[in-house]
Structure formats: C-alpha cells, structure tokens
C-alpha cells in the first residue's frame, strides 16, 4: 500500500458566498487508501470543501485534482470514481432496500447484485424492509452501501455517525475500516474526536475556512503533550462510554 500517493490534491481553494469567504485558500492532499478526517467547528467550511471536491458546488478559485482529473475539466469523470452519501430525502420511503438498490444501480448505469451490496453493510436481513422502517444506524449503513454501488475509488462521508448510539457508531467504524482495507479511500467529517482518533489515518483541523493543523492523530496529540499540555483532571482507565458498551455489549444488534 503506497500511503504517499495523493489521490486528491487541493491547492489554494477559495469559496466566497457573496462577500463572505467561507474557504480561505486552503491546500491539502488526501493519500490513496487512507481515512482522512476533516474536523472543525460548525461553519468552518468542511461541507463546502467536500462538496467542491465532489463537483457538486462551484469554487471561487484554486485547483483541485481527483485521481488525476481536474474538477474544472473532468467533473463527469470524477463523478464516476467517487461515492457520495445522499441526503435521506433522496430515498423513496415506500421502496424496500432491494428495490432502492436496484433503482440506484440503474441511475449509475451499473450492474450490481442488491443482496451483495446489502451484505457488505450487514443489512441482508432487512432486504425486504422499507427505508423508513430502519433504525438510525441501519439508515446510515444503507446510505454507505449506496456510496459503494459504482465501486468507487474514494467515498465521502459527511458526519455519518451523528445521532447514533455507541454500539451503532462502533459498528460503523468497523465498516468504514473494512471499506478502507478493501482499497477505497475515505474522506470523512465528524464532530466526535474519539471517532477521529480511532478511525482516521490523518486529520485536518479547519477553522474559519483555514487549515490550522494537519497530521496523524498520534502526532497531533504528542505535539500537544510535548508543548507542556496537561489535562486538568486525572483521566481514568475507562469512561462512561466504556461502561455503556460493557453493559449492553458491542456485537451487531438487530436495531442498530
Ligand atoms: N449556500 C450558501 N450560501 C451562503 N453561505 C453559505 C452557504 N453554504 C454555506 N454557507 C456558509 O459558509 C460557512 C461554511 O459552511 P459549511 O457548511 O461548509 O461548514 P461546516 O464546517 O460543514 O459546518 P458544520 O460542521 O456545521 O456542518 C458557514 O458560515 C455557512 O453559513
């Protein structure tokens, strides 16, 4: 696995909404086959940046290359090699999961076996269930399965675990790691720092449209400690989430 081959290259990206500059000339690379996290406060510019890379939003200036293709010249080629989560509103609530998979496969013009796609995200038992009858975790897993329909080289996940219980989050982490291990690059945004620490090979912190740090979670934490940082409270060897998982188990559950 060549970790230093850039599959996404963003140079001096600027996005203005009228006179407000949401993205202020950021540059970064995402390496092939890594899980890359975009972190930062609400309104920092993460979704804007992702949607410009996904060719869904126009940039103001800058250069973006995705797997050798420029967003300016080859947006359609980029669309073919990426997977993007749809907003839930895009799912017809009265179709079952197999029917929805067939619909999406038709839209992409690819031939996939719906059951195989559902198996990838452990939803084979829900094949005949309607989307609206799924739990929050199952909905997220289904939407991740739809990103894989066109066998993409890169998938983009915008806050995929927001609102999920601890087990469902961990199941989703395992799933995302599996997807990476099978050769797909993953770009993810999250507001959960424990999640970024567990999941991401590298993270970029975005603040007011600028990248203020970019490194592996380990290096960022070590740098902070080396600068003399100490937590104000002694950290115990377990936290309340460990208690939750210990009490309720961490295996796949019917409803998460
Ligand atoms: N279509 C738009 N028109 C005007 N301003 C916008 C538009 N979309 C986003 N913005 C503004 O751009 C800034 C960045 O928004 P963006 O959604 O990219 O942030 P974010 O980092 O993804 O935030 P969150 O964590 O809340 O999802 C915000 O101030 C937002 O209000």
TrEMBL record:
Residues 8-233 form the ABC transporter domain. GO terms for molecular function: ATP binding; ATP hydrolysis activity. Keywords: ATP-binding, Cell membrane, Membrane, Nodulation, Nucleotide-binding, Translocase, Transport. InterPro entries: AAA+_ATPase, ABC_transporter-like_ATP-bd, ABC_transporter-like_CS, ABC_transporter_ATP-binding, P-loop_NTPase. One of its GO terms (cellular component) is plasma membrane. It is found in: Cell membrane. SMART domains: AAA (SM00382). PANTHER family: ABC TRANSPORTER ATP-BINDING PROTEIN (PTHR42711), ABC TRANSPORTER ATP-BINDING PROTEIN NATA (PTHR42711:SF5). Belongs to the ABC transporter superfamily. This is ABC transporter ATP-binding protein. It comes from Pedobacter ginsengisoli.
């Amino acid at each position: 696995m060549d970790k230093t081959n850039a599959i996404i290259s963003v140079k001096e990206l600027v996005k203005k909404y009228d006179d407000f500059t949401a993205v202020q000339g950021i540059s970064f690379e995402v390496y092939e086959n890594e899980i890359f996290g975009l972190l930062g406060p609400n309104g920092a510019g993460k979704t804007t940046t992702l949607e410009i890379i996904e060719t869904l939003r126009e940039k103001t200036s800058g250069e973006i290359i995705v797997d050798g293709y420029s967003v300016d010249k080859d947006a359609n080629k980029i669309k073919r090699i990426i997977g993007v989560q749809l907003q839930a509103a895009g799912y017809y609530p009265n179709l079952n999961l197999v029917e929805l998979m067939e619909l999406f496969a038709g839209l992409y013009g690819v031939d996939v076996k719906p059951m195989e796609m559902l198996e990838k995200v452990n939803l084979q038992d829900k094949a005949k269930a309607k989307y609206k009858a799924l739990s929050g975790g199952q909905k997220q897993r289904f939407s991740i399965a739809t990103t894989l329909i066109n066998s993409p080289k890169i998938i983009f996940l915008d806050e995929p675990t927001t609102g999920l219980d601890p087990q469902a989050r961990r199941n989703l982490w395992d799933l995302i790691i599996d997807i990476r291990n099978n050769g797909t690059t993953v770009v993810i945004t999250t507001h959960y720092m424990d999640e970024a620490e567990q999941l991401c090979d590298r993270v970029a912190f975005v603040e007011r449209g600028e990248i203020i740090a970019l490194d592996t979670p380990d290096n960022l934490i070590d740098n902070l400690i080396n600068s003399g940082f100490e937590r104000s409270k002694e950290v115990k060897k377990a936290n309340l989430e460990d208690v939750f998982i210990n009490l309720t188990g961490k295996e796949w559950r019917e409803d998460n």
